[in-house]
């Protein structure tokens, strides 16, 4: 280490559990962080500050004003900017000695194995079930520890999934995803701004412990945090003998279509809908939000209408949407189960439309 690094990491060097040997271990390590949002913000800041050798960051979103209440990796000047670019600038300022490796793309089955294989530890900072299962499966198949965190309103969870060390995987805890739309997103359900700070910092702590080989990582334990009660509880979790991924009769040997696995149907991007509409495409655009939300903002200029889908023609070509895509995914699944064969979900809903098609549209 250089004299500058020795000065920077002095408080680590004073810890018997870290010392110079531990700091060198951090410098030789690599971590992949999925997402630079609520959880990824404290994760990125503290992992970079700690002196990792390589920090991979995956994101393809842009900074929105509504992110700033909790996504402290980004600032007001970054609104409208690529989150990857914003994160790169901030992380370099935090610690120029860390090599930050950006992946401005969605993590999907086609690229996950290649990207995950390059890193020692993977930290999941995502907020959707298809990506959580994808990250878990890629980590198990490659023998990588998966530092998991999730948040919802005032509560959060943290664990370390790593069957290679005898711990369960995410599928042991949640063998099947919930039905589409059952769990509201942060955009629909809300989240206390400091909550991802707490959970993301805990994930960063677990990541450093894994690299340093100190303490007792959350292997086989699920940590539950309730911000309103200011309480922490733990649940012991074990390997499931019926797990299709890491159990003795495992049948999953490769990555799958995770949108299909989570019961999500075909989607269309907002800009693709707008382009096809301009070309003359005229599907029925069904809004499944509340009348109160409709009054705030709507897509009536594109023929959007409120209504009960049960009154519609099952043979009609329908694009369904809501605020951010969760409720419309649930409606899509219900419609398909009822025999509607030509239903497409508008990916990201009104919020994505405002971000990517009409920036003048009011957001709520």
What are the salient characteristics of this protein?
single chain, 364 residues, alpha/beta, Rossmann fold, Oxidized Rhodanese, domain 1, 8-stranded mixed beta sheet, 5-stranded parallel beta sheet, globular
Structure description:
By secondary structure, this protein is of the alpha/beta class. It has 2 domains: 3-261, NAD(P)-binding Rossmann-like Domain (Rossmann fold, 3-Layer(aba) Sandwich); 267-356, 3-Layer(aba) Sandwich (Oxidized Rhodanese, domain 1), CATH 3.40.250. Helices cover 35% and strands 17% of the residues. α4 (40-50) runs parallel beside α10 (195-212). The longest helix is centred in the middle third of the chain and has 18 residues, at 195-212. The chain is globular, with a radius of gyration of 22 Å. The mean pLDDT is 94.
Short summary:
With about 375 residues, this protein is α/β, with parallel strands linked by helices.
Q: Give the number of domains.
A: 2
What general outline do the C-alpha atoms trace?
Answer: globular
- Across the major sheet, the strand order is 3-2-1-4-5-6-7-8
Radius of gyration: 22 Å
The CATH superfamily of the largest domain turns out to be: NAD(P)-binding Rossmann-like Domain
What is the helix tally?
Answer: 15
CATH class wording of the largest domain: Alpha Beta
